[in-house]
Design goal:
By secondary structure, this protein is α/β, with parallel strands linked by helices. It has 9 helices and 8 strands. It has an 8-stranded parallel beta sheet with strand order 1-2-3-4-5-6-7-8. Helix 5 links the parallel strand 5 and strand 6. Helix 3 packs parallel to helix 4 and helix 6 packs parallel to helix 7. The chain is globular.
Length: 260
């Protein structure tokens, strides 16, 4: 049994003092691979340095919607260059829309569209962040399709309703659940987790944020993805081993990973 954590941020300072122990714990927990997402191209060199020490880590590079004010054509060119130059890059992102913390919609739309174009040109999936913006995001993705694009990728750290979940499934996206699905008051999200087809399900920690029950309130880390998998197995009425194998297979398919 192995697990793949499809979204981590272990480049954050909160891991600096004990990174080797964090790495040892995820390996002991059966985490065989991780996808490390970037929120800004300026952090990519640090992420590369970490990945150089961790053979089981793949990378994504992109601009988070809360940094959308930094988007320029030149920044898009930089993301493209980094993605082409680093063989570990398996996705563009994280990109997306966030209307919970910001309302600069034109800037966020421009950054999202630019990164969708990059992903299409490089034949890579996108990692999408969506908060209080599901309707607008569906519209943006549909418009991209109407222009001839073929957006594909994952809705990361998903927290949406069943109806919103179905909309992104209909667009062909994978749905990735984080520690939020383990929270006692997350009944709507748990209903979404029961809706997702077996072949579209992914798991993640989004560490250091959103530690799952029973680690809620602590710094999250990749080893804790096991608790997400356990909760999803219970919700979906399957064994932990089957859930682990299915999500491993899906992560390999979504990101084009070598079998692990």
């Amino acid at each position: 049994m192995t697990l793949i954590d499809t979204h981590v941020h272990v480049n954050f300072d909160r891991f600096e003092a004990d990174f080797e122990q964090v790495r040892d714990r995820w390996r002991a927990a059966g985490v065989s691979h991780l996808v490390h997402s970037c929120v800004h191209p300026r952090e990519f060199s640090r992420t590369q340095a970490i990945a150089a020490q961790v053979p089981e880590m793949s990378l994504a590079v992109g601009l988070h919607p809360l940094d959308a004010q930094d988007w320029t054509d030149e920044l898009g060119q930089e993301i493209t260059r980094l993605a082409q130059a680093e063989t570990r890059v398996v996705a563009i992102g994280e990109t997306g829309l966030d209307f919970f913390k910001a309302d600069n919609r034109p800037e966020q739309y421009a950054a999202l569209r630019g990164q969708l174009d990059i992903a299409e040109a490089l034949d890579l999936p996108v990692i999408i962040h969506c908060r209080d913006a599901a309707g607008a995001l569906v519209e943006q993705l549909q418009e991209f399709r109407d222009r001839g694009g073929q957006p594909r990728g994952v809705m990361h750290c998903w927290a949406g309703t069943p109806a919103e979940t179905q909309a992104f499934l209909d667009l062909g996206f994978y749905i990735s659940f984080s520690g939020i699905v383990t929270f006692k008051n997350a009944q709507t999200l748990q209903a979404s987790a029961q809706l997702v087809p077996d072949d579209r399900l992914l798991i993640e920690t989004d560490c250091p944020f959103l530690a799952p029950v029973p680690k809620r309130g602590k710094r999250n880390e990749p080893a804790f993805v096991r608790y997400v998998a356990e909760t999803l197995a219970q919700l979906r009425g399957v064994s932990f081993d089957d859930l682990a194998e299915q999500t491993r297979h899906n992560a390999i398919a979504c990101f084009g990973l070598s079998p692990v």
